[in-house]
Each structure stands twice: as structure tokens, then as C-alpha cells.
Amino acid sequence: MNQLDHHIRKTVLLSMLVVIALIGMLDLIFTLLDQIADTDDNYTMVNAVTFVLFTMPTSIYELLPFAALGGALIGLGMLASNNELVVMQSAGIRVSRIVFAVLKPTFFVMLFSLLLGEYISPPLEQLAQSNKAIQQSGTASINSDQGTWQRIGDEFIHINAIAPGGQELFGVSRYQIDDNLQIRSASFAESASYIEQEGGNYWKLNNVEESLFSSGVVTIQNFLEEDWTVELSPELLSVLLVEPDEQSISGLYQFAEYFEGEGLDSDTYYLAFWKKLLQPISTLGLVVLAISFVFGPLREATTGARVFVALGIGLIFTILQRMMEPASLLYDFNPLLAVLAPILLCALLGFLLLRKIR
């Protein structure tokens, strides 16, 4: 019996690895082509290739649920095509035992997904995005295509680029407003460094040009250095240039709490938090649905048909996610519900189909 479990695990896991290798290579090619289109005198071909390599773990992480789906369909389908499933059931092996054997490599993929999404892909993604922003934006002026806008207290801040780790900033523009939402001052600093001291931490701004607005008069001042005390830590800054879906689970929760504390909209980050936290469960739900299809309507299907069905299921699941996520932000219902709905739908359909199997 242990040999049988090993055979099923090996077949399904190998199929999952083949699927992730194929779709990973396709994603790498398209990402590289996209980055080549962004190359210029500052952002070279070498930079583009480096960016693609650093962001590849994020791509793999996002594709893992669908790789598990396709691997389960193809691997278990191969066993069905070779009549091995029929032989197993004829020998008295229960379907639940076969299902559990298929789920074992799925649990491995779920664990790998959790570790990859929390510890490996986020720091590499931050490094890639930071390097690209530094190379493309520089320190000359505001670049609306790069960088990020944030509001902290009575200041609106734009940062062109953030160095990996968040300890150094490039191109910092600040706009201070009064109670009537009128601009009191505007300043631009070429760079900023984070200074840690026992008395309190602050940012040291370099090469600052400041404009003060009062009674129709504009006063311009220049400083080689200026101290800037603000509640904006490098830990938070290190994730500002990275999309919420590409950040770590812990970082998303921390940033959502920060936004909520500042009175800003944090639903986007809570939505991404629940999506990443529950991704292993979505992988499990998709695999359960794949197993039910192989034992049911796809038992006699060809490999091509199973691949087509896997693409269809993945597409429908993605569409449901893309519909529920913005709906939760638009109609202000719990982001957890938006993430759980497609997962529960897949799992429920899979369990219902499995119950019909004798």
C-alpha cells in the first residue's frame, strides 16, 4: 500500500513540476519582452534581465495554485488513461484513499507556496522594483510614472525611488497644507537617509529646495541638509513601491494597520492580506475539484482535453476572483468574504462530485 501511495504521489508531483516549468517559462518570456520595451539609456538590457530573474519567484508563487490544478488533472488523468485507477478500485482500494494520496503532494505545494510568498519572493520583488525605480527615476524631479504618493498628517509626499531596505530615498517632494486645504509650502530633496538615535529617529534630507507660500508671496530657500521628523519607518517604506499582491503576508497586515491608523483606506491591503493568507486553501480547493473531474466526467478524456479543462477552470476561478475583489472595495463588504467565495465554490463543487463516485 505504501508503494501505491508513493506511485500516485510521484506521478502527480512530477506532473505539477512539469506544469509549473512550462507556464513559468512562458511567463518569463513575456515578462522579459515587456521589460525590454522599457529599456533606455539608464535602464539597460542587463537591468531588464536582472529584474526578470528577481521577480521570477513572485511569478512562480502566483502560478502555483494553477500548476497544482493542472498537475493533479494531468497526473491523475495519466493513471486513469492507463486503467490504473480502475485496477486500484477493483482491488478494493477506496476512492478516499486515492484522493488522500493525491493530496499529499498538494500539501507540499501549499507549504512551499506559503514559504515562497512570505520569505523569498517579497524581498526579491522589493529589490527588483527599487533598483528599477532608482535606475529610471534618478533624483532630478518628480516622475509620475515611477515612485509613490502618500499622505502623512498634513503633508502629501512623493518619493521617486526607495532603496532596498527603505533606509535611503531618492527624489523626495513634500507638499504641506493648512486646515483650508491650501498649500503652505512645497519642497524637493534630492535624497534622504534614515538616522537612528536614542533621542528619536528622523530623516536627513540632502540638497533641499523649499518654497513657502504666504499672502500671495513665494519665498524660496535652499538647504544642503534638513532634518525631517515623520512617522514613516524604513520597514513601511520598503514595501511602498511593491504592489499589495506581491508583498509578504506580515508586511501586508502591518501596512494595513498603518493605513487604518492614518485614517486612510486600508481595504486594498486587507484584501491582499486575506488573498495571500488563503492561497494554500485555494490550491487545495482547485486540486479537489480536479480530482473530482478525473473520477467523473474526465475519466476517459484525452490529455489534451484535460489540459483544456484545467485552463478553463483556472480562467473561471481567476474571473471570479477579479469580480469579487473590486466588488468588495466598491460595495464595502468584508474582504475575507470576497476571497473565500471562489475558494468555497470550487471546494463545494469538488466535494459534491466526489460524493457521487461509487
Number of helices: 10
- How much beta, percentage-wise? 15-25%
Question: Could you state the order of secondary-structure elements as H and E?
Answer: HHHHEEEEEEHHHHHH
- The total tally of domains equals 2
What is the rounded distance between the termini? 21 Å
Oligomer: single chain
Helical content band: 55-70%
Report on this model:
The chain has a 6-stranded antiparallel sheet with strand order 1-2-3-4-5-6. Helix 2 (45-81) packs antiparallel against helix 4 (95-137). It has 2 domains: 2-135 and 267-355, no CATH class; 148-240, no CATH class. It contains 10 helices and 6 strands; from the N terminus they run ααααββββββαααααα. It is an alpha+beta fold.
Structure summary:
The chain is an alpha+beta fold and 358 residues long. The protein is built from 10 helices and 6 strands, in the order H-H-H-H-E-E-E-E-E-E-H-H-H-H-H-H. The protein has a 6-stranded antiparallel beta sheet.
SSE diagram, text form:
Blueprint: H1 2-36, H2 45-81, H3 84-90, H4 95-137, E1 148-152, E2 155-162, E3 168-177, E4 183-195, E5 202-214, E6 217-228, H5 234-237, H6 249-261, H7 267-277, H8 279-295, H9 303-331, H10 335-355
Antiparallel strand pairs: 1-2, 2-3, 3-4, 4-5, 5-6
Helix pairs in contact: 1-2, 1-4, 2-4, 2-8, 2-9, 4-8, 6-7, 7-10, 8-10, 9-10
Features:
358 residues; 6-stranded antiparallel β-sheet; 61% helix
